[in-house]
Design brief:
- The chain is mostly beta strands.
- It has 2 domains: about 80 residues, Chitinase A, domain 3; about 50 residues, Thrombin, subunit H, CATH 2.40.10.
- The protein contains 2 helices and 9 strands; from the N terminus they run βββαββββββα.
- Strands 1, 2, 3, 4 and 9 form a 5-stranded antiparallel beta sheet that branches.
């Protein structure tokens, strides 16, 4: 049993718990109120880079307003992420209309969010940009807990919580 002292501030490889709310265009679109504080491993890209950078050096109980530019958040809007897909590749149960949101799998098996932006005769036009692409993100964050990461967490690069949040 090592007597690791509690980390005094947010630093790489520290498990950080934050309470936060995310405001985009004046509207709160996400917050930790429902799920409770978010725990993540600092310095391992568990959260968006612009927020991670701003948290460094914060202490428990500290709050901060962080404005994250699109490029440090969910990326800038990419025209190449808009694609035309043959209609017959879609399962019949998906309604073919503008604004329908779906999840599609790319070549690597990664699940992407997509929105139908146009319905043509033989093809459907999908936009797979992240819904928050190009948006400036406003975070209200408060650091509510810090602890040393376990060797297993460090090996895996993310937190092993008992919260049952599996990404």
């Amino acid at each position: 049993m090592s007597a690791d002292k509690q980390p005094g501030m947010v630093a790489d490889d520290v498990v950080v718990s934050i309470e936060y709310s995310l405001t985009v265009n004046g509207e709160v679109i996400d917050s930790s109120k429902e799920e409770g504080p978010l725990a993540f491993l600092q310095g391992r890209h568990n959260i968006i880079p612009g927020l991670e950078r701003e948290l460094a050096g914060m202490k428990v109980g500290e709050s901060k307003n962080v404005v994250v530019a699109a490029k440090d958040g969910y990326g800038e809007y990419d025209d190449a992420a808009v694609m035309e897909v043959p209609r017959d590749q879609f399962p019949a149960e998906i309604p073919m209309e503008q604004g329908i949101e779906l999840h599609v799998t790319d070549e690597d098996g990664e699940i992407m969010h997509a929105v139908i932006v146009d319905v043509r005769e033989d093809t459907i036009v999908l936009d797979t940009n992240h819904p928050l692409a190009d948006e400036e993100l406003h975070f209200d964050v408060k650091v509510v807990g810090l602890r040393a990461a376990t060797s297993e967490e460090l090996a895996h690069g993310h937190v092993h919580g008992d919260h049952g949040h599996h990404h």
